[in-house]
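Session log. Operator J.P. requested a structure for one protein chain; no other inputs attached. Running the standard single-chain path with token output.
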Amino acid sequence: MQAYFPELGSQIPQRGTAFSRTLFKLILRAQGWKFVGDIPNIPKAVAIFAPHTSNLDGWYGFLAMCAVGLRATVLGKHTLMKPPFGALFRWLGVLPVNRESRMGLTEQVVEYVHQQQNVWIALAPEGTRHYAKELKTGFYHIAHQAQIPILAFTADYDTKTIKYLGHMIPTGDYETDLAVLLSWYKGQFSVPHPERLSQPFCNLQDK
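Structure written below.
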């Protein structure tokens, strides 16, 4: 059976051509991967990908984005934009942020979001590939302050599936909203390094 890949709505930020999308679909299929879920036609969002335990997460996430033609913006140090690799990082969708700026990281990203017609900010809420006691809250504060939804994605390495799990508009009640987000992940993921799972995702594993 042919692997499924969703078609993106007109409001979602997009990149690539029909040829490049076909090429990346073939690369994913050749590695046995597929996609589950229809992505909502939303112009601005914070897209989270979790859990994150391996560099492979970034590789398969990148292939999946290219296969469906999604243009996602990731955060990077402003110094990355210098020659000789600045043009490459801009092409890859890196948004330069200055951690030494008077304006905090969240405020810099929110300002950027407000300036765009359509933009998806892609983040790994754990902020590390290794064990963490808690998730970083930056993804939530960006979405809440920018008044845009959070979209949840995950990878199931056992079935080689990239999954879209759902989206929510943050209410400002972080603990309540986080509990809802995490509930979507229960039973939906498997990872190459279970020992590196952050505690919130460890808590979702069957005892």
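Operator note: Residues 44 and 116 are 8 Å apart (CA to CA).
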